[in-house]
Design brief:
Blueprint lengths: L8 H6 L5 E6 L2 E6 L2 H10 L2 H17 L3 H11 L2 H17 L3 H15 L5 H14 L2 H14 L4 H13 L3 H17 L6
Antiparallel strand pairs: 1-2
Helix pairs in contact: 3-4, 4-5, 5-6, 6-7, 7-8, 8-9, 9-10
């Protein structure tokens, strides 16, 4: 079965002699391309609307099986970035709970790249936090700066930048960002950011 759809018996008899291999996995027969290059050529020759339909079925099958990372990959390939966003946040939370912060960041980064300028600020906030936890301060700072540029009146956005600059050892820049956070917090009537 491919994404929940079983080929008919006649189709199975002819199916990909020399192209596909059969494997027994968890008591079921799984078909896979023998060579990755054959898979890539077949995918390229498949009409776009058929590819999108296959990815949509794969998203459903992967989400149902709680294989969220694969579901995100298929949702991005399908072009359903809204669904990919929700799945990616859930997958990132699951990965983070298992201390796989770098993997969670890679997954969200893939989504942010696919969404280009339309990635929600929440994705950038999560990426800043994940990269910080993983010890990758440059990418964390880039995402934190993106959030601060989008929300200049949010003291927490400046505070995040200040903290990242501090742990990156850029104390002069951190001092400026933390001062901005303090001023913005006072101006907004919040005692502390």
């Amino acid at each position: 079965a491919v994404a929940g759809i079983s080929p008919d018996v006649a189709g199975r008899a002819d199916l990909g002699a020399g192209l596909l291999v059969r494997s027994l996995v968890d008591g079921g027969v799984v078909l896979a391309f023998e060579r990755e290059s054959d898979r890539d050529v077949t995918y390229a020759l498949t009409p776009e609307h058929v590819r999108r339909e296959m990815h949509a079925r794969a998203v459903d099958a992967c989400a149902e099986a709680f294989e969220l990372e694969d579901a995100v990959r298929h949702a991005i390939a399908q072009g359903d970035l809204e669904r990919a966003s929700g799945l990616a946040l859930a997958a990132a939370a699951s990965l983070s709970a298992r201390h796989a912060h770098a993997e969670a960041a890679i997954l969200l980064e893939r989504l942010a790249t696919a969404m280009q300028d339309d990635a929600p600020l929440l994705i950038h906030e999560e990426l800043a936090d994940l990269y910080r936890i993983a010890g990758s301060y440059r990418p964390a700072l880039a995402h934190a700066e993106h959030v601060r540029a989008a929300r200049p009146d949010d003291p927490e956005a400046s505070l995040r930048v200040g903290h990242l600059l501090t742990v990156a050892g850029e104390l002069e820049g951190a001092r400026g960002a933390l001062e901005v956070a303090r001023v913005v917090a006072e101006r907004s009537g919040r005692a502390e950011p």
